[in-house]
Amino acid sequence: MNMKKWSTMGLAASMVLVAAGCGKTAAPASETTKPAASTAPTAAATAAASAAPTAAAAKKLTGDFEIQYFVGGYGDKWWKKVIADFQAANPDLKIKESAGPKINEQMKPRWIAGNPPDFVYIDGPELFDRQMVTDGLLEDLTEWYKDAKNVDGDKISDLLAQQPPQYDGKIYNIPFVLNSWGIFYDKALFKDKGWAEPKDFEDFMKQSEAIKAAGINPFIHTGKYPYYINGAFLFPAIVSANNNDYKLLQDMANNNPEAWKNPAILKGLDKIVQMRDKGFIDKASVQINHTDSQSLFLQHKDAFIPNGLWLPNEMAKDVPQGFDFGFIPSITQDKGGKVVANTSTATFAIAKKAKNKDAAKAFMQFVFAKAQAGQWAELSGAPSNIKGDISSSKAPNFVKDAAKYLSSSDTVVVPTVSFAADVDKAMQDATVALTIGTITPQEWVKRVSDVVAKQKK
């Protein structure tokens, strides 16, 4: 979902990746001026929200205020709720929602023409934060962020699990959604079969032997979009092989030629080879997309699938009765090793040419209230980037499981790592080739490092 974003906005050459592999939704693109009546806030929520203007802004908010948000695997329930609450707190503000699964593509001409919305959720295809900064499309929030407080009076910077990305030392977007790649399985199936959740790679291979013997493919991935297996399997394997130091991934993403010589990369790739040579990878993987692989997983044709936390929400209509999603961030650590959670964030930003920056900043302060963490987890099926215990919330169990991993001292939490488009594409292509045995790990490294070398010229 939010893991592979690329830009045709700044007019950079794009990979043809269909990121919204995680953007499946039945909701059409929409532009509305008022939240639907069915999403009206509860009395309690409205009462809580009514205090917002005092904390969020010194003056009453008026005029037009437009919000652009992508509707993908996380759905739009949270957006409808929070916008309704913000509207109730600011009745003189005319809010326009520009939203839908294709909204980024639809809004691109307006960004290019210098007529963007005021507030933007950077997620899904056609939006890439680094390119938007390079193209001068986003407001510089560096000074504002230093002392910015949410509507409860809490300093926003103190609440975040991951701090905003910096571009030449400046801040333009603030992460709200915290996603983790990982491995899903069905707890109910495993209980029925007497299989245990794997604690490490040796355990995973042992469980996979039993799974294969039972006539089920142990592992399926999305061959058309190999960033799933890279994000959930390969990158954690590389971090584990590098003594739990994720700086190697960052050096790789920065196109440091020396990083690509690190033997930890080969060790990580060897985990894929071991799986492949044991026949644990479903042969259908190489040619199928995200929903096809997820459907086979839900049908128990396959026991494990690498994916992001949006998976259960994205496939909600197809989940069989009794299916109980289990989630572990990584299965590639050696015995006794730490779990590695390869995370990504989706961020909020304000357009540099926003017409109502006061409302945009007030909304930023509104959404970063602690109460939104539990609401986001409950309504979207993913943790927010706001620190806090969601164990008592109505969030799905797999989200609570993920949150526990992300807050545990026994987990290595890898901050969002973003590769150059050409390098990322080379890694994806090479990984697919490795899974079917047409190249070796050494050839994988050569393929990708050759592209890195071109980037450095």
Automatic annotation (TrEMBL):
<comment type="similarity">
    <text>Belongs to the bacterial solute-binding protein 1 family.</text>
</comment>
<dbReference type="InterPro" id="IPR006059">
    <property type="entry name" value="SBP"/>
</dbReference>
<dbReference type="InterPro" id="IPR006061">
    <property type="entry name" value="SBP_1_CS"/>
</dbReference>
<keyword id="KW-1003">Cell membrane</keyword>
<keyword id="KW-0813">Transport</keyword>
<feature type="signal peptide">
    <location>
        <begin position="1"/>
        <end position="19"/>
    </location>
</feature>
<keyword id="KW-0564">Palmitate</keyword>
<dbReference type="Pfam" id="PF01547">
    <property type="entry name" value="SBP_bac_1"/>
</dbReference>
<keyword id="KW-0732">Signal</keyword>
<protein>
    <submittedName>
        <fullName>ABC transporter substrate-binding protein</fullName>
    </submittedName>
</protein>
<dbReference type="InterPro" id="IPR050490">
    <property type="entry name" value="Bact_solute-bd_prot1"/>
</dbReference>
<keyword id="KW-0449">Lipoprotein</keyword>
<keyword id="KW-0472">Membrane</keyword>
